[in-house]
Design a protein that fits this description.
With 329 residues, the chain is mainly α. The chain contains 15 helices and no strands.
Length: 329
């Protein structure tokens, strides 16, 4: 049997095609971006698939609404996994485990900074988040994972944060996530998704090194399209030219390298471009599944961006630039 033939069943394909049909069109997204208030955005979204989720949050602050949208997405991942036999659902770990890693980062940052951010945890299966959230020191968190034989490399970050900063905790979590995904991945599409996710992490660390005049080469995550010698680049302009030359993220504007928000936007644009190719290559199997997952994630990220800009009355042209970044053609 060819790997992932389990994805090619009529029931799953029918459900996914229905979800694809309910994705917001670009004209709908532009209408949202022209909203004058957060309540106007929520009123519009109540007529979409997000209606039931946002029904009780009409008067909530934007951060709460964003969190509910994230929860909606994670629940959707579990819902989609239910379209397939239990023995086949491990493939969805590539997407749900990313949220597991995000939750751990939130808990670590809460402990390290003293700022309680645990309300932003989106619970995933497999970890007792209530128990973990009650631990208030790094060693306790490491012991928690050690007892379960997971995230063993996290202990390596102890001491390194004094030299390199708190990002080392993120690095070891991202590395474990990537290593876990590599064990699951078995088709070109998944390998490409993992590599793209690693690319954005590596480019961020290259830029972090540039800003702090440090070579962070030891923190590269594989597999990646980012050459190791990028970590030795001393100027953003040189980095931009090299990225443009080999086509990483197809960045058309060097100022993107100075704006994390824009970097994330360009990365998402690249991922959507890839997902469209997946759909064309395989419109009834994995290509359809990955397109719906990635497109929905992008849709929710765009809605969250619009919410931020409308709430703070930020310039519409800047919002347009972030929603639809200028990339090389």
């Amino acid at each position: 049997m060819i790997m992932f033939d389990f994805l090619r069943n009529e029931y799953a394909a029918a459900r996914l095609r229905s979800m694809k049909g309910h994705l917001l069109e670009e004209n709908e997204m532009r209408k949202l971006s022209n909203s004058k208030s957060v309540s106007e955005i929520i009123s519009y979204l109540e007529k979409t698939d997000y209606g039931e989720t946002l029904l009780n949050f009409f008067q909530s602050d934007v951060s709460t609404i964003e969190n509910e949208l994230d929860r909606f997405y994670v629940n959707l991942l579990y819902k989609m996994s239910g379209f397939y036999p239990k023995k086949s659902r491990h493939i969805f770990e590539i997407f749900t485990k990313e949220w597991e890693t995000r939750n751990i980062k939130i808990i670590l940052k809460s402990v390290l900074t003293g700022e309680d951010m645990k309300k932003y945890i989106i619970k995933t299966e497999g970890i007792d988040w209530d128990s973990l959230s009650k631990i208030n020191d790094i060693n306790g968190i490491i012991e928690f994972f050690s007892s379960k034989n997971i995230y063993g490399d996290l202990v390596k970050s102890i001491g390194l944060e004094e030299k390199f900063g708190l990002f080392v905790f993120d690095f070891y979590l991202d590395k474990e996530y990537s290593d876990h995904c590599k064990k699951i991945a078995g088709v070109g599409m998944l390998n490409e998704i993992i590599k793209l996710k690693n690319d954005v992490i590596n480019i961020r660390n290259v830029i972090r090194g540039l800003s702090n005049e440090k070579n962070l080469e030891e923190f590269i995550i594989f597999p990646t399209n980012v050459p190791k010698d990028f970590f030795g680049v001393k100027q953003r302009s040189v980095l931009f030219e090299r990225m443009k030359r080999i086509g990483i993220f197809d960045i058309g504007d060097p100022s993107v390298l100075e704006n994390n928000f824009m970097m994330e936007s360009v990365f998402r644009e690249k991922m959507i471009s890839v997902s469209k190719r997946f759909l064309m290559e395989d419109p009834f199997g994995p290509g359809l599944l990955f397109y719906v997952i990635l497109k929905k994630e992008d849709e929710i990220n765009k809605i969250k961006t619009i919410l931020k800009f409308v709430k703070d009355d930020l310039p519409g042209d800047e919002l347009e630039r972030i929603l639809y970044p200028k990339v090389l053609k």
